Amino acid sequence: MSDCIFCKIIAGEIPSAKFYEDEDILIIADINPQAAKHYLMMPKKHYTDIADMAEKDPEALGNIFKKLSGLISELGLDGGFRIVSNKGENGCQSVGHLHIHVLGGEKLNEKMG
Ligand code: AMP
Ligand code: ZN
User: Fold this and answer.
1) Domain limits for position 67
2) Structural domain includes residue 64
3) What spacing in Å lies between the alpha carbon of 110 and ligand 2's midpoint?
4) N or C, which end of the chain has less CB nearby within 10 Å?
5) 18-52: per-residue pLDDT in tens?
6) Which regions of the chain does DSSP assign to beta strands (E)?
């Protein structure tokens, strides 16, 4: 996906603040944080959104969450966190490469949306 900003970040063509990387996933800091800790967790393989990946490789999608569970302390999320993945126009998705927002590091607003 030559015009995908997150594919470019994964390829190292655009700089990012990386917190975790392995052969399958990357976790970076969101450039416009909405909480004290705001990460973006993404598969290296390009999927347009969470439904696309759930349809094509549900096991790999599950593994992303398993990895997050193993990184909770390292990411400063022991107090808890919220995950969000926007899909499509109504979800206000602005980058068309699946990414899962992980928000925490402080008490979040009770209401979402
Ligand atoms: P969404 O609106 O759910 O598609 O989320 C896209 C997120 O990507 C937003 O929270 C942006 O702040 C974030 N973002 C966009 N460009 C970058 C970048 N170059 N590095 C880190 N985060 C980015
Ligand atoms: Zn991409």
Assistant:
1) 5-104
2) yes
3) 32
4) C
5) 999 999 999 999 999 999 999 999 999 999 999 99
6) 18-21, 25-29, 37-43, 81-84, 100-104
Statement: residue 1 has pLDDT above 80: no
Verify whether residue 99 is a known catalytic residue.
yes
CATH number at residue 11: 3.30.428.10
* pLDDT for residue 2: 74
Is 15 touching ligand 1 by the criterion CB < 6 Å?
no
Whether 93 lines ligand 1, by a CB cut-off of 6 Å, is yes
Task: Round to whole Å and give the CA distance between 81 and 76.
Answer: 10
112 within some domain: no
CB 76 within 8 A of CB 105: yes
In a domain, 15, yes or no: yes
For the chain, what is the domain count? 1
The confidence band for 53, taking pLDDT boundaries of 50, 70 and 90, is very high
CA of 90 to the centre of ligand 2 (A): 20
CA separation for the pair 79, 94 (Å, rounded): 28
Please tell me whether the overall predicted TM-score, pTM, comes out greater than 0.85 for this model: yes
Q: How far is the CA of 95 from the centre of ligand 1 (A)?
A: 7
